[in-house]
Design goal:
The protein has helices spanning 37-49, 64-67, 83-87, 89-97, 158-164, 172-185, 202-227, 233-243, 250-269; strands at residues 3-7, 10-13, 19-24, 27-31, 54-58, 75-79, 117-119, 124-125, 128-132, 141-145, 148-156, 191-196, 200-201, 273-278, 281-286. It is α/β, with parallel strands linked by helices. Bound molecules: zinc ion (ZN) (2 copies). The site of one zinc ion has 4 residues, from loops.
């Protein structure tokens, strides 16, 4: 998969994640440089062929597969809350899995990625606007340029929706708010680039967002059935994963526990569930 021009002065290098390139004011704004040496080479070769003098990287969030190839950029932009995630592999791991993972798990962890410019939602950098899209991680940001929106991991493509079932968001209720807000931003001619998955336009983009909402709703529905029997967070997560036929491996359980914990905490706040500490651990059950 090579570069594709999706709008005037906007290109995308398809992959997982997708990498965007906005060419404006003599600058290459690269949204999520991604992961892997080959990808870095392809990005810089493209910038050279376009004869753009300056190179800025714009990060949607601090997950390593989106940020690993930030070398060779004059400036690297990230939301204030994402800076720690990008710069500290420890903070990234703790935020992503609830633990500073070691080599015992097979995750890619990556190095520190120094951020030169902190941004906030609503900021505009030479025509590139930072949109509030958090929930997947704290500070997660989408970028809008003209009629193109780079959504990062606020919205997942169809294939991933079918494969993972339990969508990874550190803060599920906030991720749901983000989905609602992003849907409102979609116009008939909007070109929408999710972090993982094909580029969709207008109506199809709205449908994809709806599917993401439905996937979260389905998890809540199924989780509600499972929690009726009670259990620890780990037990409940594994039961739900088994129900969906997902692979039960330590790292996947660790990952899936994050959004499940977020949903349970929200229900605790709302008084729908109760928790008690026992010798088995913290038991969650429906009220
Ligand atoms: Zn991510
Ligand atoms: Zn991602």
């Amino acid at each position: 998969m090579g570069w594709r021009e999706i709008a005037e002065n906007v290109l995308v290098l398809r992959g997982s994640p997708n990498t965007g390139l906005i060419a404006t004011n003599g600058i290459a704004f690269v949204v999520d440089p991604g992961y892997g040496e080959g990808r870095a080479k392809s990005i810089h070769k493209k910038i050279e062929s376009l004869r753009l003098a300056r190179r800025f990287a714009m990060l949607t969030h601090g997950h390593v597969d989106h940020i690993a190839e930030c070398k060779g950029f004059e400036r690297v932009f990230a939301h204030r809350w994402c800076v720690g995630l990008a710069e500290s592999a420890t903070l990234r791991n703790v935020c992503e899995f609830g633990v500073n993972t070691t080599k015992g798990f097979t995750f890619i962890t990556g190095d520190s990625v120094p951020i030169t410019d902190e941004i906030w939602w609503g900021d505009e950098i030479l025509g590139v606007e930072a949109l509030d899209a958090h929930g997947h991680t704290p500070g997660h940001t989408a970028y809008m340029y003209g009629n193109v929106i780079f959504a990062g991991d606020a919205v997942f493509g169809d294939k991933l929706l079918n494969k993972v079932k339990i969508l990874y968001h550190t803060d599920v209720p906030t991720a749901e708010e983000t989905l609602k807000r992003l849907k409102e931003q979609i116009k008939g001619d909007t070109i929408f680039v999710p972090g993982h998955g094909p580029i969709v336009e207008g109506k199809r983009a709205r449908e994809l967002i709806e599917k993401n909402v439905e996937a979260i709703e389905q998890v809540k529905k199924d989780l509600w059935e499972i929690i009726k029997d009670g259990g620890t967070l780990e037990e409940i997560t594994v039961r739900l994963m088994e129900f969906y036929g997902l692979k039960i491996e330590p790292e996947f359980v660790l990952l899936d526990m994050v959004p499940i914990r977020s949903i349970l905490s929200k229900w605790l706040e709302e008084g729908k569930v109760k928790v008690e500490a026992t010798e088995m651990g913290i038991l969650w059950s429906a009220k």
